[in-house]
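Collaborator request, handled under Task 6.
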Amino acid sequence: MTKRLNLMLHCGAQAVEPEQLDHVELPPIKRNERGHITYQPVSHGAVRAEIHRALNGQGLEGPVVVAEAQGMTEDGQRAFGMIQVDVDRLDVAKQKTGLIVGWRNSHDQKFASALAMGAGVFVCDNLSFSGEVRVTRRHTRFIRRDLPGVISNAVGKLLAARHHQQRLFEAMEQTQLGRYRLNDTLVESMRVGAIPNASIPKVLAEYESDHHREMHGGGTAWSLFNAFTEVSKKDPVTTAMKRTQKLHGVFGSLCGLAS
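Structure tokens returned to the collaborator:
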């Protein structure tokens, strides 16, 4: 059985089972004055199902999806979820991170459907989303026909991007932080919106704690990065996507890697 991931939910949202995603009545199709379809909604369950199909179609052996969770607003208009992927078929104990694919979909046209790649830090269940690929096929007449190809292409891009993410993590481990670089990174992360101003003391306290140093070492960009994600681990998944993508940019510059 697939394990359930921890998923922080927005206000007004609740955790749901996969089958519940298909039980939402779709909004009506919209047409222009000529009768041509201008908006064709797609169910949340269809988006999730196509992501599963795309992941299983990447030529990976064994069970690809090892854990997942999904949430939905009470009115069913918006849904989002996380899917943990076992890409490399390696012993989990030997890996620092795992691959998470985050997704979102809406029926109220408030935001575009999108996928994002993330890293789950096994020792403390942190999330770090490094990139996002929007499902750019418009919700028009042939969206249901084209959706499988669009999502498969998006998943392929995300899986290819994981190599850059791994290089960044390795560079973080080798990058030493003195007090000035530490302070500059905290300020820059706050400036770009990777962390709320009020959370900076929490990040610093986590970074300097004995417990954190035992798990992630001390004095490196990797340790500081994990302090950020530890403090942010209670963010809703869509908030985590935005903030940690910005965080990757900050740490990429710190370590001399383009984001």
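The cover message to the collaborator said: "The beta strands are 3-4, 13-16, 30-31, 37-39, 65-73, 78-85, 97-106, 114-121, 126-134. Residues 89-94 have pLDDT under 50 and may be disordered. Please let us know whether this matches your experimental observations."
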